[in-house]
Specification:
5 strands, globular, alpha/beta, 2 helices, about 80 residues, Nucleotidyltransferase, domain 5, about 35% strand
C-alpha cells in the first residue's frame, strides 16, 4: 500500500508518497487549492497504483474542499492529528 501524506495550507497542498517501508517515492505541490488542482494530484498519484490511502493533516478549515473532492473521486482518506 502507498500512503500519500498531505500537508494542507491555505493556498497550496504538498503531497509526499511513501511505500510500506516508508521510502519516499515522490512529492508534489499544488499550484492552488481548487478542485482542478485536487484532481491533478489524484491523477499524479495514479502512477503509484490503486492500493493507496491519503493521510490528510486534520486542519479542516484548510482541507475541507480537498477532502470533499477526494471522496467524490472515490479516494480513501484518513485524518491525521496534528502534533
Amino acid at each position: 500500500m502507498i500512503t500519500l501524506g498531505i500537508d494542507a495550507h491555505k493556498r497550496t497542498h504538498t503531497v509526499v508518497a511513501v511505500d510500506h517501508l516508508g521510502r519516499q517515492l515522490g512529492t508534489r505541490t499544488t499550484r492552488a487549492t481548487t478542485t482542478a488542482d485536487h484532481l491533478a494530484i489524484i491523477r499524479w498519484a495514479d502512477q503509484f497504483g490503486d492500493d493507496r490511502c491519503w493521510a490528510v493533516e486534520d486542519c479542516r478549515h484548510l482541507s475541507r474542499r480537498l477532502e470533499r473532492d477526494m471522496l467524490a473521486a472515490g479516494e480513501r482518506i484518513v485524518r491525521v492529528h496534528r502534533s
